[in-house]
Amino acid sequence: MSWNSFGRVFRFTTWGESHGPAIGAVVDGCPPGLVLSEADIQPWLDKRRPGTSRFTTQRQEPDQVRILSGVFDGRTTGTPISLLIENVDQRSKDYGEVAQAYRPGHADYAYDAKYGFRDYRGGGRSSARETASRVAAGAVARLVIPRVRIRAWVEAIGGDAIDTRAFDDSEIDNNPFFCPDPGAARRWEALVDSARKAGSSLGAVVACEATGVPAGWGAPLYAKLDSELAAAMVSINAVKGVEIGDGFAAAALRGEDNADPMRPGANGPVFAANHAGGIAGGIATGQPIRVRAAFKPTSSILTPVETVTRTGEATEIATRGRHDPCVGIRGVPVVEAMMALVLADQALLHRGQCGW
Amino acid sequence: MSWNSFGRVFRFTTWGESHGPAIGAVVDGCPPGLVLSEADIQPWLDKRRPGTSRFTTQRQEPDQVRILSGVFDGRTTGTPISLLIENVDQRSKDYGEVAQAYRPGHADYAYDAKYGFRDYRGGGRSSARETASRVAAGAVARLVIPRVRIRAWVEAIGGDAIDTRAFDDSEIDNNPFFCPDPGAARRWEALVDSARKAGSSLGAVVACEATGVPAGWGAPLYAKLDSELAAAMVSINAVKGVEIGDGFAAAALRGEDNADPMRPGANGPVFAANHAGGIAGGIATGQPIRVRAAFKPTSSILTPVETVTRTGEATEIATRGRHDPCVGIRGVPVVEAMMALVLADQALLHRGQCGW
Amino acid sequence: MSWNSFGRVFRFTTWGESHGPAIGAVVDGCPPGLVLSEADIQPWLDKRRPGTSRFTTQRQEPDQVRILSGVFDGRTTGTPISLLIENVDQRSKDYGEVAQAYRPGHADYAYDAKYGFRDYRGGGRSSARETASRVAAGAVARLVIPRVRIRAWVEAIGGDAIDTRAFDDSEIDNNPFFCPDPGAARRWEALVDSARKAGSSLGAVVACEATGVPAGWGAPLYAKLDSELAAAMVSINAVKGVEIGDGFAAAALRGEDNADPMRPGANGPVFAANHAGGIAGGIATGQPIRVRAAFKPTSSILTPVETVTRTGEATEIATRGRHDPCVGIRGVPVVEAMMALVLADQALLHRGQCGW
Amino acid sequence: MSWNSFGRVFRFTTWGESHGPAIGAVVDGCPPGLVLSEADIQPWLDKRRPGTSRFTTQRQEPDQVRILSGVFDGRTTGTPISLLIENVDQRSKDYGEVAQAYRPGHADYAYDAKYGFRDYRGGGRSSARETASRVAAGAVARLVIPRVRIRAWVEAIGGDAIDTRAFDDSEIDNNPFFCPDPGAARRWEALVDSARKAGSSLGAVVACEATGVPAGWGAPLYAKLDSELAAAMVSINAVKGVEIGDGFAAAALRGEDNADPMRPGANGPVFAANHAGGIAGGIATGQPIRVRAAFKPTSSILTPVETVTRTGEATEIATRGRHDPCVGIRGVPVVEAMMALVLADQALLHRGQCGW
């Protein structure tokens, strides 16, 4: 079944394992006539690429993308766009331990329970490496919605949150944490360093905002824009929670405190508070779309943890190797990509560009 | 497009407006041979039915369900099951105000932006009345997964949470709040009463647990069991956030604190903490599935709120009429229904009952 | 799985058995703002209705349709349109024989093999009565494509074909056979009468043409317009073959004889011969869409035929009761409905009306 | 939209143009644990490969397939199988004429009407080269249904049909026409040679039979096994008609002549005549599945034909280059592949292997 495809009309399918020859995506439903080359995709892959600072895994992957189809004379043709990224740094190592014992918190046991068989090298299909394919597809999606501005950032690491009053959009790219608050960024350096040195890991909260989404995008009931976004965010490795607008905070309020006064505006009503995060009844209100995703700390830690072997014996396992001390950081471009993919889908639906 | 259908193999489609002659659902993909009659569905509809206590809306709807197809000699045939519920209490009133001005926090403006036209009587298709169809379909879904036990409850109202140490499963049905903590239930009486009398409303957090789900159900990547559950919960009116397992709490932890030791068990490994809420890599681990949904306070309050008219003028609106002071309460059977619908879908997929 | 739904964006789901309380369809994806009432649907149902001449089954069904949702103030709202048709003439009879022995040529054995259980009353879900739901949904589809003219007729009965030189469009509704050739219509009276009196049945070929379909509708590869039409036609009870344009005749030609010269025209190129039936590479060329469907003679005949019982013993069965001597005749409005449903789907896709 | 994907649970997506760097397919939903290597796929690609006799195009393509994902330790993992075939023989030539004028009978005009832009080199996406991807995917599908035997052959070329009494299964691979009748094969040599030398082309009828399909596969109404097969066959380039079982011949019969007596058999009832081609009510009866496809003569002929330019002027065009004199011949392995893909889908559905 289409477990590896996402989207309704702007639809992409990813394939590939972390230790196979390559990974990739096929983007189906992209309109014809868009100017597209590898140069439009590579910057987003570079943003996600590992090894860019000491706060991410040291695995070295150039993540160079190749376009194999769907583009002619520098423009999309409306036919499937095949994107290919070769795997380069597959450090040969002994996977014996991982092959025999389940890493707690990883998908190892669940995969065996489902498939009775798994590619245990680096997690195989369950590896976060698959998200490179999403980022590549997301770069194509961005070309479909040029007027929409998508921006994600890290809002908290290990429980240490930014000061929203210090929020500075221009700071996000000035630090290795995609942090909009310089003060928090400084604190996180020490925090993430200590976790990294201790072979530990940290959870994080990533926020994402999309502006320029016209009122009316989305759909009622079982394809609500917020349902699509929730599914998209939870589909990202390590994400365990999602909020639309004020999310759980709204559940603690009275109606008056959550009320969202509407006032006449140049381009339709303006919502004074936008508690709803730009979505009502599953449909965009024309206000900024606001989503938040909770990333758990990765289970790849040096501290040995009790587990069981494939044959059911008790044992202990510690995860060595090159891991992200805080996966939420590199989750930022992935969250942006999923937002772009969901919105491109809506754009085509509502613009009537569903014929390809 | 299939905005009104949900599910992959156990698939249902709902139809109907709150003020039309009837609402209903067509359940497609139900296996043949299941014993089914209206008596299997009615109790769940009664659990959701309005007017059962002073803490819910006083609209009187018998919500009697009729099965129009798909059953022969008391058993399902594998063909579509058509369920019909007549609308009875459509109190004739003047909708002039709602027709002209948008209710802030409601879907009124978004629907007009999308469709350019809407059935404004009681919210039309965006009315929570649609959830009766889900509960009816969910009752059929439960018959597909007899070994799975699904239980939802209210965990907090207006920020006042239960004491988890006082959690008593048997208390849930002993109070009008589906509250497992008798102490909290007493406090909530006063809290909800005051909100009701003030014409205000309260947000709530609903938790749901499913036990008996075998390891292996679910799928990787874009059909993760947690993605399906997140989409299902966010598709419920007023839900603005979802957590799987520990959700946002996990984002504040270090890897060691979120570690989930696995120990040998009679039926596969046992997870000591189940922080993950029974799902890893999108696939069930065999542990209890745990989900939490945040319900915002309904926007239907007596306090006038600024808004705009269809023609863009500034005005004020207060929502009179019969409304739930805390929609989260009646959200409990709906959350259970969506859980049942998602799991029935998985059951058929993994049992190989996808042929109908 | 969605065995009972058809269409991508203009999507309908049918439900109901020939001997249940009712049958119906839910039409999802219909644009908002279309003027719609029962009066727009009833004439097409009447065209298909049994008992209108001695050449069709004498079962009496008023086939009165009711719209239960999706329409407000006489216009569609963009939400699901629920259509309901009550079953009236379910003559109580003894189905013992059909319950125990499989009718050769019917779906009885196949249904038992698949479901292990079936509603044997009048064929249950496999009854051609289901096509009434298609005709009702097709009537809504026609409103989506007002500029497209769809016309079907019977081209041959029992091997006796019309004289294409005598083709007169205005004659089609002047005889009980939807026959465009008055001479053939006269011959068919005797032919069908003799079959009816002998308790026999006759096969037929139904042709359908759609004009006004703009070049560009359709899609390449796995959703070719001709693929969609072929699937739609073969989904009709008793259809065993489909031709697009010249169909099998083209397979006997040389390239020169099948060449289709293109000449400049007021609205794009004109194809001199239109051998292709208005479709090239799966996409409409702007020429008339031409499809032909082969209806087998119904297996419901009085002549006893060898068969087996549910328990595997050899026996004989003859099908008594009220049957169509030539199901192809009443197939005409069904073929038209399927053509309308496929084209409405394409219209929405290419007009960018996929948002509902 | 998924115009480039086919199948419900065994689902494949193809990508690539005839003159791009490569073409390929992603097979999603293949069960884990199947032994698979390039060696299982290559023989089927070789059967379709051009240039194997003087009766097919002389374009030289090695069509070497590479598996990029979804296989570990020689077995499928249940994750997507990415198949890649490089394009080698893209003879550089001047496409100016084809770029400016539409080839009658080709998809040129329809593509421009739809996309406003096309890759005119060798037909781009509309080139029959895409069928190599189907054959590769079909080879994987065959591994899913080892007990099903699929066999296709050419039944007629240019109207010259085989003598069914001379049918000899073992002859099919003994001649370049996949012809089961040695006498016809001899006649076709001269026939196809003359067409080839004259720069003409010939239509053909391809028949396909699948044995070993258990009763019960398939589904009612809108996913009938015959509907799926009809859509699959018509999706093949140049196919303009499809017959299930006796097809159009049945439309000329009386019920008695089309009756299909059932007799007790070792493995369920045996149908004496199997007029229905192994399908009743959309569901397999356990008898051989029989399908016939009509291939038109390719429009690529040397005789100049009237046409129009992109700018609407009248002109003439003759198609030079390396073309198949009878595309139906190389259509044989493609028809077999589509049959295998449809049946693999059904196998997984009915075996309950839909979880991946």
From TrEMBL, chains A, B, C, D:
Identify one Gene Ontology CC term for this UniProt entry: cytosol
Question: Which chemical reaction does it catalyze?
Answer: 5-O-(1-carboxyvinyl)-3-phosphoshikimate = chorismate + phosphate
Positions that bind NADP(+): 48, 54
| One Pfam family it belongs to | Chorismate_synt
Write out the residues that bind FMN: 125-127, 237-238, 281, 296-300, 322
Q: Secretion signal: which residues?
A: none
Q: How is the cofactor bound?
A: Reduced FMN (FMNH(2)).
Record NCBIfam families: aroC, PRK05382.1
Q: PANTHER family recorded for this chain?
A: CHORISMATE SYNTHASE
- How is the subunit organization of this protein annotated in UniProt? Homotetramer.
Summarizing the function annotation, the protein's role is: This reaction introduces a second double bond into the aromatic ring system.
Entry protein name? Chorismate synthase
Q: What taxonomic lineage is listed for the species of origin?
A: Bacteria, Pseudomonadati, Pseudomonadota, Alphaproteobacteria, Sphingomonadales
